[in-house]
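Thread: Newbie trying to understand structure tokens

Hi all, I'm a second-year student working on a class project, and my supervisor (Dr. K.) asked me to get a predicted structure for one chain before our next meeting. I've only ever worked with sequences, so writing a 3D structure as a token string is new to me. If someone could post the tokens and maybe explain what I'm looking at, I'd be very grateful. Here's the chain:
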Amino acid sequence: VYVFKNSFLFSFINSYSSKIFISWKTSFNDHVDLNILTSESFKCVKRKLLLDKYRTTVCIHEIQKDRDVSGHLVSHGIWEEHLVTHFIRILSTYKQYSFIDIGANLGIYTMYATSLGCSNIISIECFRPNIERIHRSIQLENVQKQVELIPRVLYNKSDVYLSLRANIKNNIGS
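---
Reply by user tm_fold:
Sure, no problem. This is what the structure looks like when written as tokens:
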């Protein structure tokens, strides 16, 4: 999870673009068109109200397949509450900053950034079931204009095949 001042964001990406390669072997485009309505139906729930002001929607996996993250979200209302709360405190003070969520998982940080009103959010996730859930969450909250969802893997070498396997030790995205 990275937070950047807008003017700094693009110079940072440009200066490191020769060192970061995007490698992905799939039918996905460079980004997900968030204006195309998804027909997927997932369990999507409002998350815990943080700092008495910020709440959002997150779409989850079946708890039997994802006890670690989705299960924790259902039982506790939030995942990594202390980190998300700290993140909200920082970003609510500096709403002009851009936000990059690398390895977004279900998009918890992405979605809380939208609830803060951040207008330049980049969410990067490589696991298709997670991408579909983030896409649906963005639609439910109607924040398509705030988020760029990139279905890619970021890695420091090109042409490297990375394998994802579902349901490793109750964490579907591991």
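A couple of things are worth pointing out once you decode it. The longest helix spans residues 128-141. Residues 4-28 have pLDDT under 50 and may be disordered. Feel free to ask follow-ups in this thread.
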